[in-house]
Amino acid sequence: MLPLLNIFGELESFTSELYPYRFVITPLLLLALGGAVYVAYRLGLHRLLLRHRVATAVVGLPLLAASLFAGDYLLSPLWERSYLEEASPIEVIASPTATTDTDTMLPVSMTDAPPAAPMPGIRAQGRFEGADDFHFGRGDAQIIRTADGNHILRFENFSVRNGPDLYVYLSADPAGEKVDEALNLGRLKATDGAFNYEIPQSIDLASVKSVIVWCRQFSTLFAVALLATSSE
């Protein structure tokens, strides 16, 4: 099964390279198909098939079923879309006010106050770009520090070409190519919208350089966002 999937992956990559020339290639393919049907008709292939109906059915029906299954698996994601809108984890925190002693009306010593927790906000962010003309991707990637000190990866105003097996990774590679060394955050939740992923606390965020959307089935990059540290 794996070699067959590799063939599909190579075919998908080849198709992505031809995608910019689709307006020229598509009419040529239609003309070639029409020419092939005309030649087959002139040669009397249809009469041969009718004379051997059983053999035609035995060979043709499985081929048709396999073509429909493969076509649905490979092509239907290209026009299937999904939308998800999750709330942003950024919380609006009121500015702290000075604490006073009710008897003296003097500010309490800073040594009496608990240590300040890290302020929530965007720690790093970047914009998604598609891997090529076929694998488009757009929107914002944000690594957000929450009020409790945890971190969330957020997709904002996001849209990507759909695929059969898309996952989200945090990568130390700015180009998003070293997937084997990247952190898998799970399956892509939707092709469009805004949504969040929890980042494990054990991850060294200083080493994270990009967010990538990757098709695991065919080992194909769909979109990558190069992250830049935000000013605190």
At a glance:
By secondary structure, the chain is an alpha+beta fold. The chain has helices at about 1-20, 20-40, 45-50, 55-80, and strands at about 85, 120-130, 135-145, 150-160, 165-170, 185, 190-200, 210-215, 220-225, 230. The longest helix has 27 residues, at about 55-80.
Can you put this structure into words, describing what you see?
The protein has 232 residues and is of the alpha+beta class. The protein has a domain at 83-90 and 115-229: Immunoglobulin-like. 31% of the residues lie in helices and 28% in strands. The protein has helices at residues 2-18, 22-42, 45-51, 53-79; strands spanning 83-85, 121-130, 137-145, 151-160, 166-171, 183-187, 192-199, 210-215, 220-226, 228-229. Strands 1, 2, 3, 4, 5, 6, 7, 8, 9 and 10 form a 10-stranded mixed beta sheet that branches. It starts with a helix and ends with a strand.
Care to count the β-strands?
A: 10
CATH architecture title of the domain at 83-90 and 115-229: Sandwich
Rounded Rg? 27 Å
Spell out the helices and strands N to C.
HHHHEEEEEEEEEE
User: Percent helix among the residues?
Assistant: 25-40%
- Unreliable spans are 1-5, 92-106
Which structural class fits the helix and strand makeup?
Answer: alpha+beta
Per CATH, the class of the domain at 83-90 and 115-229 reads Mainly Beta
Compute the number of helices: 4
Described by the principal axes of the CA atoms, the overall outline is elongated
Q: What is the CATH T-level topology of the domain at 83-90 and 115-229?
A: Immunoglobulin-like
Strand content: 25-35%
Largest sheet geometry = 10 strands, mixed
Measured distance between first and last alpha carbons: 50 Å
What's the pLDDT, averaged over the residues? 77
